[in-house]
Amino acid sequence: MFHFQMFFSALLTTFLLSCVQASPSSEFVGGVYAMSNNLDANTMVVYARRRNGTLKLLDAALSTGGKGAEINVGMGFDPLFSANSVVITPDNKFVLAVNAGSSSVSVLEVQPDFSLLLVHVQPVAGLGPTSIAVSGNLVYVSSPDADAAIQFSPDRRSLVVSDLFFGFNALRTGTVNEIVVFSVDKFGHLSTAPVSTATSTELNNAEGRNLPGEIGFEIVRSRDVQYVVVPEARGLAGADGMSPADQVASVSTWRLDSRGRLFPVQLDVPTGSSVTSGQVDSCRIEFSADLRHFWVTNTPSNSISAFSFNRKISSLEEVAATGTFPVDLWRSRDGKFLYPLFAGSVGAFEVSKGGRGAGLTLIQKPMNVPEMNAQGIVAFYLV
Ligand SMILES: *[C@@H]1O[C@H](CO)[C@@H](O)[C@H](O)[C@H]1NC(C)=O
């Protein structure tokens, strides 16, 4: 069911000598990179980022050396049905992007002017990949047959996997694994079997809630406790084309211990005032820099919801921002700006209270992204 590949652990170290530095006088302090996922020739849309959060286009179509794809039932909007299809390495030097149509991962080096240089295309086995997880020099990718996203825990001891078709398989077969955790040994190898699994919603529950379909999630460490925070869509179409009627989307939280065990903290918190009033199909998540807030993209609702986070979560603003089909989002490191990827554009939003609030104000919306098939965005920052 899960196919993982470990590769080029040596490659990334090869490039550690280069170092990106901007002169203090530079107008630009980072980059924002979105992926077109173009089916014929995958490309990156490359922006430099100003101190005030606005973007300047550097390259509208930088080749990744691979091809994009439409996988599962995503089609033109949300084509990969995944999260972390574009990531930044923890050393802040390389952007990794999936070529799901040609079974490879592109390694792009961030240049001093925040443009990207394609330095390597790594072939991987099988269909996809659709999601990338990086820890130190270790890179895992996931295949799309069941996994929507993968991510290492902050303590690096676990690899957490979300299961997009959890809800629909469960409706048909009773298989219930929304979140699956594998342990990672000191050599970087995964446990052959999951060490834990979790779900927020029981089959045939008394509340009549659909089982969740799960794409993006985030693992944060707050006061030395790790939390897995999971947006839950409750009406996506299943692999067989059948879908339950859309219900209000939600967010669930588990604590993740150092042995990879999950403990529920708070389950099925709706995006609105109740499970009958809110946005639908929350698919990705991004935290504020101080971890006190997070935002989720509600892709078919064309909206972004804001939540507060203080171990417990609560809905703060059902619609904090709007935009067409938000499929992904990433914030600047200082927390002052949030960059969602919409169909046809990138949104540059200023976060209220200098990054300490949850409010979002649109400051720019460059339209350089293709309207169809784009997926994946990251914001690069100077340390
Ligand atoms: C950001 O800075 C640029 C360049 O100085 C300027 O043109 C733009 O108006 C500024 N935008 C905001 C929202 O401050």
Give a topology summary:
Elements (H helix, E strand, L loop, with lengths): L3 E3 L2 H6 L13 E8 L7 E8 L4 E9 L22 E3 L5 E6 L4 E7 L5 E8 L7 E5 L2 E5 L4 E6 L5 E6 L2 H8 L5 E5 L12 E3 L19 E5 L2 E8 L17 E7 L5 E9 L11 E6 L5 E6 L4 E8 L1 E11 L5 E4 L5 E6 L2 E2 L1 E4 L8 E5 L12 E5 L2
Antiparallel strand pairs: 1-10, 2-3, 2-28, 3-4, 5-6, 6-7, 7-8, 9-10, 11-12, 12-13, 13-14, 15-16, 16-17, 17-18, 19-20, 20-21, 21-22, 23-24, 24-25, 24-26, 26-27
The structure holds 2-acetamido-2-deoxy-beta-D-glucopyranose.
Structural commentary:
The chain has 383 residues and is mainly beta. It has a single domain, classed as 7 Propeller (Methylamine Dehydrogenase, Chain H), CATH 2.130.10. The chain is built from two helices and 28 strands. The strands form seven sheets. Strands 23, 24, 25, 26 and 27 form a five-stranded antiparallel sheet that branches. It has a four-stranded antiparallel sheet with strand order 4-3-2-28, with no helix packed on it. Strands 5-6-7-8 form a four-stranded antiparallel sheet, with no helix packed on it. β3 and β4 (55-63) form a beta hairpin. The chain binds 2-acetamido-2-deoxy-beta-D-glucopyranose. 2-acetamido-2-deoxy-beta-D-glucopyranose is lined by residues 50, 52, 54, 363. Residues 1-22 form the signal peptide. Keywords: Signal.
